[in-house]
Amino acid sequence: MSSNPERPAHHGWLIANLLAQLAFGLLAMTIGLPSMQEWPAMFGASQAAVQLTFSGYVLTYGLLQLVYGPMSDRLGRRRVLMFGLFITLLGSVVAALATD
Hints:
- The structure is a single chain.
- This protein is mainly alpha-helical and 100 residues long.
- It has one domain (6-97).
- It has helices spanning 6-32, 39-43, 47-75, 77-97.
- Helix 3 runs antiparallel to helix 4.
- The longest helix is centred in the middle third of the chain and has 29 residues, at 47-75.
- It starts with 5 loop residues before the first helix and ends with a helix.
C-alpha cells in the first residue's frame, strides 16, 4: 500500500457525505411520521391517501435497493451516487417551484 496524504482526507469527506445522506433521510422520516395525522387537513387528502404515501415510500426505498446495488457494482458507486444526488436535487427544485 502506498501512502498518499491527500487520500485519507478524501475518504473522510466521502464517508461524512454518505453518513449525512443516511442521517438526513432518517431524520426527515422521523420528523414527518408524527405529523402525518395532520396532513389530511393540511393537504385536503384522506387519511388512507396519507398512509399510502408512507407505504409507497418504504416499498420504493426497498425495491430501489435491488436496482441500485447491481447498478453500482456494474457502473461504479460514484456514478450511481452522483446520479441519485442529481435526481434528488432535481426533485427538490421542482417541489420548491410548485405552486399547488
